Each structure stands twice: as structure tokens, then as C-alpha cells.
Amino acid sequence: MANQVQYIFDDKNLRNSEPQKYNAEDLKSEEMVINIGPQHPSTHGVLRLEVVTNGEEVVEVVPHIGFLHRCFEKHAESIPYNQTIPFVDRMDYLAAMNSEHAYAMGVEKMLGIQDKIPKRVEYIRVLVAELNRLGSHFVAIGSYGADTGALTPFFWMLRDREHILRLLEWASGARMLYNYIWIGGLFYDLPVGFEERCSEFITYLKPKLAELEKLFINNKIFVDRTANVGVLPLDLAINAGVTGPMLRASGLKYDLRKVDGYSVYPEIDFDVPIGKGEMGTVGDCWDRTSVRVEECYESIKIIEQCLVRLKGDYKRTRDFDPQELVPKKIRPKAQDLYVRAENPKGELGFFFRADGKSDIPFRCKSRGPSFMNLSIINDLAKGGLIADLIAIVGSIDIVLGEVDR
Amino acid sequence: MTFEQILEQIKSVLTDSVITNIDEAASPKAIVIGASSLIKVMTLLHDNENLYFDSLSCLTGLDNGEEAGKMEVIYNLYSIPFDHHLMIKVIVDRVNPVLPTITSIWKTADWQEREAYDMLGIKFDDHPDLRRILMPADWDGFPLRKDYKEQEYYRGIKVDY
After folding, report:
1. Do A240 and B76 touch (CB under 8 A)?
2. Domain B3-158 belongs to what architecture?
């Protein structure tokens, strides 16, 4: 059978493709290498951790990544700018709208049309991105509950996320990978009645979040499990390129929506919650989870304000065409550009090089927040217990689709 | 601080001409420096109290193709307290791409340099742990090079089909 794909098995294959950094022979007699993942639910995907242990204590963690590598950058170098958007969705598949927003902003900046985008388009973008941010945080909080031994929050959060997915499906036609935000505009306008349904959802959600805080975040069992675990000092966080809720939990009020003030965020009133060490030390696992919950409240605030404006100043009109500015041909001038935006996980950056001669980027590099946040895991877990390592991996909130790209 | 002020600050401390070129079209604006002065410039940018680029946002490796015969490494720096950006480009030889590592200045460079090595084969001298990061360790070639050809078979599976 000439064309049949046949994997040739050899028991040395794994050792050759992902060699361990530490060999049993080189370790001290009381030390042992334990392999966690890539097929393990607490690693949140296909992350493999090579853990050197001394009894229950973690001596060193070596993450092995790349199992979900889908050559995003190579793909982006071979297809036109607008066709890359579905690939961008598949990087952080829990927050596809946010990634699309960042990517579209970058290309619009290169084309010089970033100031011409209609306000209604920008508000819809922010609305759907914040809805998606809620969805992403819900998965982070819920699955963190499951990691630490509380299964109820997981069901609750996924129940509430379902409403968001249905809203976004109504707008874009897809549940997770939307291809909704286009360069220069949107795929569609919001469907008629979306704003009303969205406000209904917000009214429903607020008491549910309060309930979650009572049941889960301030629960003594959860506090004991996560407070003072995996403390990340601020100076190390900045130096290691950690961003997003993780950096804010370490006590720095740093949110690109405020700092860069991109899109219509400067017109919207919201706070940036930071970790205060209420239950333990600043920058511990509890702070990281608590910051995510606080951010959910802020996202709700943003959504409410967007809805007011989408029903008021920038309301639906008969002649509004969200694709009006979508360029037929995307050929930016020769330039290098770095663009960044605040994703639920942190700073998502794109570096573009356009050569000015083609519709295809010469180079498109993505800087994923999960990738950078994960790189700190050894410093967080060293000296702790193996059980705490699981709590730390969960608190980083990684999406392997973005780590591996 | 504006780009011009940053330039002046660099020039006032490092008197010898480390900046070989300036790219005003880039966003943020970029300076081009030689590989030999990389550590010197980066240390200054990180430590100087007026510049204080405390975060390295992004490190990009880039291949200009066989004809151009050079590769580039692009560093995007950002200062959180002063809110200013800078792009730094370093040109390396394509046949033997070697650069000094900056992991001792920014810890975040560790994985980003490993990625650049994995994708383009740029070697970073004195890097503490320069292994492939995304591709399997026994993969042939560096995928983001412009003249990259996939290996024909990997574990008996045809790669290009």
C-alpha cells in the first residue's frame, strides 16, 4: 500500500523527539523524575511537565511544550492578511474575539485606516471582546475549581458561559472560532434584538457572580488551598514578561486597555483590579483567581456602557454597512510594526513586517501571553509540594493552543 | 520620552557609534545596532534610570532570504513607568547566525530566544538552556527560514502531502 500513512513505532521515539532534561542516573539518590502529562486533565491541554522531586517536594519543573504546534507563523507568511484571521482564532480558542481584535488593529494601523473605523463597529468589537473575556475567565475560574477539588464552580461557570457562546453564535454563526472581526470592519452587524438579550444576560449574571464569590472564592477550603501558594514577586513578574491578570495579581495596576487606550476603551469607565494579598501574600494563587473574578465585574461594566451607546448614539441604522471599510486588497506600505492588546490572559502582541510588494506579510510573529506566563512555572513551583504544582498550573490560566501556536 | 531623546541618551553614554542605522518608518521607531554592541546597549537601556526599559515585550527572529544573505533579530522594548517604546534590530549573518544572549538582563528572553533558535536556527551564545522548544528535538531544519524544505518522512509518515 504505497500511499498509506503508517507511523513507524519505536520505543525510543518519545525519547528522541522530547528528550528529558534530567536523567535518573544524574540525580541524587533521594530524587526522582515524575512525568506529568501531556495527557492529564490538570495540565489544561497537552502540556508535559518533567518534575524532579524529592519526596513530595518539587526540586525543579521542566515544561515540555509544542504538542499542539500548528505552524501559525508559517501559515501567516503564506496567505493574505485577511485570511489569517481564522488562524488567529485558533491560537487562544477561548478568547478568539480578543485575538481577532488585536490582529485587525495591527493590520489597520499598517494600512493607516485605524482612525476611520466607524464608532459603531468599534463598540461592537469591544462588546463582543468583553463578552469573550467573560467566557475565558469563566473557564479559567471554573476549571481552577476543578483542579483544586471543587467541581460545582466548574458546572456553574460553564452553564453561564453557555449563554455567552449562544449570544456570540447568534452574532457570528460560530460558537468558539468566530472570524467575526474583520480588517476594517465586521462580518455582520449585530442581529436585531441582540442588545436586549445581552442586557437580560447581564441582569441574570450579576447575582450569579456574587453567588460564586460566596461559594468558591471566599470559601475557607479554597482559601486554605491557594493562599500563600505560588507567590510571584512583582519584579520577577515584570522581568519574566508576565502580563495580564497574573501581573496585576502581583500588585501592578497595568492594563493595556488603560495604558494604550486603544479602540474605544478611553471613552469607557472601568477599573483595573489588582491583587492585594487579602488572604495571604500579594501575588499568590488566590490573588490571581480573585483578580479574574473582579475583572468579570469590570467587563460587565464595559458591556453595559457599550450597550447604552449601541442603543443610543451609535444605534442601528438601515444604511449601516459594517463591511464598508473592509479593503478589497490589503497591501500595506513596507514597514515593521508591533501591535499589542490586552487579552484575557495578558498582552497579545503581533510583529509584522510588510514588504510593500505583496498582500502577504513577510513575517508575522505572535507573542502569546500564555507562552510567556507559562515560562515562569519553575520559579513558582520550586520548593513547593507536587499538589501545589497542580494548583499553580491552574492559576496561570494557560491555553495550550496559544502556548504552542 | 520621545525617540529623539532616547537616541540622545544612548549617544551621551555610549560615545562610540553603536547605532548603525535608524528606521523612522517602523512603529515604534527602531534603531539598528551591531551584534557586538548588543549586550552593552541592552544593559544601558535596562539599567539607566532615565530609560529604564524594564520589559522586553517581544523578540522576533526573521530571515531575509538567501539573496539578502542576512537574518535579523528584533527586540521590542517597553518601559512600564515611563510608557515609552523602542524597537531594536540586530542583523546577523545567515550562514553562521550567532548572537549573545540577553537572558541575564531579561528572564523573558529565555523562551523567546529558544523559539528563535527553534524556528530559524539563530544561536544565542551562553544561553543557559538552548534546546528546541516547539518542534521535536529530532526534527531536521529550521521551519521559518525562507528556503526551508520539509523533511520527506518523519517516523514513516510523509510530511508534505
Report:
1. no
2. 2-Layer Sandwich (3.30)
